[in-house]
Amino acid sequence: MFETAELGHKLDKAIYRQEEPGLRQALLEAQYELKQRSEFAVVILINGVDGAGKGETVNLLNEWMDPRLIQTHAFGAPSDEESDRPRMWRYWRALPPKGRVGILFGSWYSEPILQRVSGDIKAARFEQENEEIVRFEKMLVHEGVLLFKFWFHLAKDRQKKRLKELEKDPRTRWRVTDADWEHFKHYDEFREVSEKSLLKTSSAEAPWVVIDGEDTCYRSLTVGRLLLAGIRKRLDQPDSRVMAIEAAPLLPPLDKLYLLDRLTLNQTMEKADYERELEAWQGKLNTLSRHPAFTKRSVVAVFEGHDAAGKGGAIRRLTAALDARQYQVVPIAAPTEEERAQPYLWRFWRHLPRRGRLTIFDRSWYGRVLVERVEGFCAEADWMRAYAEINDFEREMVENGVIVVKFWLAIDQDEQLKRFNEREQIEFKRFKITEEDWRNREKWGQYAVAVHDMVDRTSTSIAPWTLVEANNKLYARIKILKTLCKAIESALAAPKGERNG
Amino acid sequence: MFETAELGHKLDKAIYRQEEPGLRQALLEAQYELKQRSEFAVVILINGVDGAGKGETVNLLNEWMDPRLIQTHAFGAPSDEESDRPRMWRYWRALPPKGRVGILFGSWYSEPILQRVSGDIKAARFEQENEEIVRFEKMLVHEGVLLFKFWFHLAKDRQKKRLKELEKDPRTRWRVTDADWEHFKHYDEFREVSEKSLLKTSSAEAPWVVIDGEDTCYRSLTVGRLLLAGIRKRLDQPDSRVMAIEAAPLLPPLDKLYLLDRLTLNQTMEKADYERELEAWQGKLNTLSRHPAFTKRSVVAVFEGHDAAGKGGAIRRLTAALDARQYQVVPIAAPTEEERAQPYLWRFWRHLPRRGRLTIFDRSWYGRVLVERVEGFCAEADWMRAYAEINDFEREMVENGVIVVKFWLAIDQDEQLKRFNEREQIEFKRFKITEEDWRNREKWGQYAVAVHDMVDRTSTSIAPWTLVEANNKLYARIKILKTLCKAIESALAAPKGERNG
């Protein structure tokens, strides 16, 4: 992987000087067109060995292009708000919106590589993280992001020489830190581990480009040309977005037996039993939320279900047991303008709770495989890939200590009709019923298929679906509270799922 | 202020039980209407003495109303991202958008009161902070926020009794912390300081309501009724937004002599001198940005000016001297949907830099008194009050260690015409010239008046305007670099402007 970058590439300064002005102008032009059309975002990852010109390149790109349309993020030690959330949260919040260029200095590669070099993670874990990165980048590319991954390389003897040169010059001395020399000591391990990571993660969608960092002219012009060619190509072929491979279509079960049909929706629960159980489980939930071990964990609870299935009421029975300072309920409606300029999952990532807290989603990322699928708001290829993306998202949470619970509240068509009619009678509930609810009702069968496939493909051992028979509201509320309590209880009892300490 | 809340108010439980269901329903109804119309946000501040039912009330409100439309924020110790920015930043980021209810548990009152009680700040400083709060809340109200300020009170002996009761009951013991007893020791000082603050900050726009915290029924129903009456009143009188008092109109100077007329726009600068000075000042800026003292400070640089005055070019000469990891350029265009749902200054607060960093605004909050004034995008009362709000905003920054520099780049009409024509010739610069630029040009005189008033009213000793004669781009760039360097240099030499540490 690094051999060709150790050939000692060089470029004549005269050639550089001749080409630079035209390149700059063309890059600027591409950048303004990118902004004006705002159809996709450009993400540039800058990684590699110290002294190979990473920082200089980032600065050069900001000089060549219009810095007003570039967002540069360097990832050092995470802030406390960042380390309180799943590992990838800080990268999601740094993604540029459509029309902009984002330069990520460090990126999601630095941590696994450095942790592997220092022996903090084992080979299997390292392998797994690389696979996760491949899937994450695939998702970005499918969401329309134009991704460049630059690795700046220097052979061992050249790195040593370079660091010494920088140290000798008083103007550049500050750039060589103790950490740089510390890293140098581990050059060989670093090279070996990096190479493994690069090989694993150089995919068709997001290939690595290794750049010989020694000669400034060579390095700069290589990066500049690659960027220009990549952005221009995408701009000139408006439909050059990586086409999803068309998967074979999903087929309904041959016997037409759907998951929801198997539920006994009419469960019984006496009012008196309900009152007693409600108090008991709310008390339990309150105790769990104040458990010392809970300060290291967090909860993400997802509520999905038929319209009028009682999500709001169930959520309120749950929050009533909690301290309002500890939870946030996030109702998911149409995405805002800022959310539409980002990959699909961005608007859920932004709401993830800090440790010790709970976020309750009233509707969620499952909209992609429910309403968006049924209504045709996105292409089949988009919702088909969403199953795997969602599983990755939830695994990322669970591995970082988040307790994920997911509820589907199921009622039948008669019960729904009864509730719709009731809502229209009651003044203050009229806000809750819209034209859209009546329209969705006509697609009952299509939703049944979508729910069936959703549960089939996203009910995992780490984040299982709980189907809630909800014709009887009292029964449903108790089942939800109980399920949540048990999930928290078993998570607090188990060794922490978190991988980073 | 607290006497009436020490009368020992009580409410019969039967009355409470009778009224509660109707109140809940009416609150829910109001909440859904608030959401549907999304015309204003409701902010509820919860402050007062420990044990007076603050937490219980917050939980009750979340139970009574729909928690999906409420955002509750408790303010404990600031996170590192928060303490790295001006004091009010954490409150700005917690403001609810239009259509939502935000409950702020703690709020901007807690810190000054506790600091005054502990003697960390002097009386004069405390006084000043209260005045700042008054102006801040006035701004919120003018921006359409419906603000409730509840102070929960308990007489000294009752507080002691209450804390003891809570401690005795195993179910509530956890709620009494050492800090609560520590606070209790200072009850008298706390009462005295709080009363001063409440008296100072109980304004016509945002009056305090002191609530006797002893009796749960009395306390809860009082808060509920007040909220309902307040929200309903505003909903039922769509135009009940506090009307700005119409100020006397601004008059142009009698002799028609405007600030910009006094500038000698054609300055000279030889190319060779420029190259030499550019290198020198960029080197200086680079050194300053790496000065150890700079890690405790930050820079906010504002660029305003005529269209085509050379803002972009000047910004690039500045960023070229900096490490890209350290700065962010924020171009200000039309606000996004999320920004439009917030008070005007929200979209600038969100971009303020952490310590050790620079944010460069290409156009800024001055849009309010420039383009919005000239084009009539906002009412006269709105841009008239903006001068004072902007001065408050900038003072808040400076007092927290931010170095604020502001540039107006001035060219004359002939120079602008020349540049417009040039831009239309050059392929990649065509993106930079729009219909709007030509239209703005026709309003040259109106902009001259607006700039005159702007400088007149917002050039303060702590955040002065620098007028830049920009017919000669080289001269302008050097003047800007030099001014910025001197501002940073003198700030780093001076004792820290910050007040909290």
From TrEMBL, chains A, B:
Pfam families: PPK2
Superkingdom per UniProt: Bacteria
Coiled-coil portions: none
Ranges where the Polyphosphate kinase-2-related domain occurs: 11-233, 269-491
NCBIfam families: poly_P_AMP_trns
Protein name: Polyphosphate:AMP phosphotransferase
Protein encoded by which gene: pap
